[in-house]
TrEMBL record:
Protein name (Swiss-Prot/TrEMBL): Short-chain dehydrogenase
Sequence similarity: Belongs to the short-chain dehydrogenases/reductases (SDR) family.
Domain of life from the UniProt record: Bacteria
Matching PANTHER family: 3-OXOACYL-(ACYL-CARRIER-PROTEIN) REDUCTASE
Xref: SUPFAM superfamilies: NAD(P)-binding Rossmann-fold domains (SSF51735)
InterPro entries: NAD(P)-bd_dom_sf, SDR, SDR_fam
Pfam families to which the protein is assigned, alphabetical: adh_short
Length: 290
C-alpha cells in the first residue's frame, strides 16, 4: 500500500544531524510526505567522524522524488550554530519544523568523566536545542504555526532495580540526565508556545536503534528496533495543530501502537507491520506519551 497523504506538503523542515542514522531517516520520511527538508551536519560531502554525509542524504531524497537542501554546520562552533536557523530559512524561504536530533553520545562514569566531555554533552543535547528553538520561534510565529521535535532517549527514565551492568558500569548517567532535561524542556516549551500554535514534542527509541553513532554502546545480542518506527512517530508529532498534539514525550514503538498509526517505509511506499514491544522495553514508558 502506497501512502499518498502528503501530510507535510508545502512545509519546510530543518533537521540536524541528518548525515546518517535517525536524522537521515526523519529527513527521508518528511520528504516523502511533501516537505522541503534542510539537512545539516558537519560537512557536505566528506565524513568527519562517522560514515555518512549530507550529500548522500540529499541524493537518497532526490532519487525518491523529494526535495532536500544541504547546509553544513558544526554545532560545536557557536558562530555556525547560532546562525543556522536564519541560514536555513533564507535557503528555503521560511521554516515550519525544527527537529533537534544532532549529537554524539559520549559515555563515562561520573567519577572519571573529563569536564570537557560533560560540557560537550550539555552543549550537544541541551544548549543546541535551546539555541535553535529560540531562533526558530519567531519564524514559526510569523507563519501562524510550527513544530519543534526534540530527540530524547529511553535512558532518561530511571534505571530499574536491581541495576543491570549497563546502569552500573555503562557510563550513561550524565547523558541520561541531560536527556531527562530535554524531556522537561519539551514539556515546558510546549506550555509556553501553545497559544502561538507551535507544537513541541519529543521522541525516543523504545529500546535502541543501531546507528553509526550508537552502535559502539549496544551489545550485539540486544534486540534493537528499526528506525522506520521512530521516523513515523516523528511525522505524527509534526503535522497536527498544537491544540491537538503538544507537550508529549513519546517512544517509537509504543506510540504507533497506542495511537494505531500505520507505519510506512522511509519513502512512504510500503506499509510495514505494526511494531512489537520486546521484553527489554522499559516498564515505565507511557505508551501514548507522557
Amino acid at each position: 500500500m502506497i501512502n499518498t497523504s502528503k501530510k507535510l506538503n508545502g512545509k519546510i523542515a530543518l533537521i540536524t544531524g541528518a548525515s546518517r542514522g535517525i536524522g537521515r531517516a526523519i529527513a527521508q520520511r518528511f520528504a516523502a510526505e511533501g516537505a522541503t527538508v534542510i539537512v545539516t551536519g558537519r560537512s557536505l560531502d566528506q565524513s568527519v567522524v562517522l560514515p555518512g554525509t549530507l550529500a548522500e542524504t540529499v541524493a537518497l531524497i532526490t532519487q525518491a522524488g523529494g526535495r532536500a537542501i544541504a547546509l553544513a554546520a558544526d554545532l560545536e562552533k557557536p558562530d555556525e550554530r547560532d546562525t543556522l536557523v536564519a541560514r536555513a530559512a533564507d535557503a528555503a524561504g521560511g521554516l515550519d519544523i525544527l527537529v533537534n536530533n544532532a549529537g554524539l553520545a559520549e559515555y563515562s562514569r561520573v567519577e572519571t568523566m573529563p569536564l570537557s566531555m560533560f560540557e560537550r554533552t550539555l552543549d550537544h543535547y541541551l544548549r543546541t536545542p535551546f539555541t535553535l528553538s529560540q531562533a526558530a520561534i519567531p519564524l514559526m510565529r510569523a507563519r501562524g504555526a510550527g513544530w519543534i521535535l526534540n530527540l530524547s532517549s529511553v535512558t532518561a527514565l530511571a534505571p530499574i532495580r536491581p541495576y543491570n551492568v549497563f546502569d552500573s558500569d555503562g557510563g550513561a548517567t550524565v547523558y541520561a540526565a541531560v536527556k531527562a532535561a530535554v524531556s522537561r524542556f519539551t514539556q515546558g516549551l510546549a506550555a509556553e508556545l501553545a497559544a502561538d500554535n507551535i507544537a513541541v514534542n519529543s521522541v525516543a527509541p523504545s529500546t535502541a536503534i543501531r546507528t553509526p553513532g550508537a552502535a559502539q554502546y549496544i551489545p550485539a545480542a540486544y534486540p534493537t528496533e528499526a528506525v522506520e518506527y521512530l521516523a513515523e512517530t516523528a511525522l505524527a508529532l509534526c503535522h497536527l495543530p498544537a491544540k491537538e498534539r503538544t507537550g508529549l514525550v513519546t517512544h517509537s514503538l509504543h506510540f504507533p501502537l497506542a495511537c494505531q498509526l500505520p507505519v510506512y517505509s522511509l519513502d512512504g511506499r510500503e506499509l510495514l507491520p505494526p511494531p512489537t514491544l520486546p521484553e527489554v522495553a522499559h516498564p515505565h514508558i507511557v505508551p501514548s506519551g507522557a
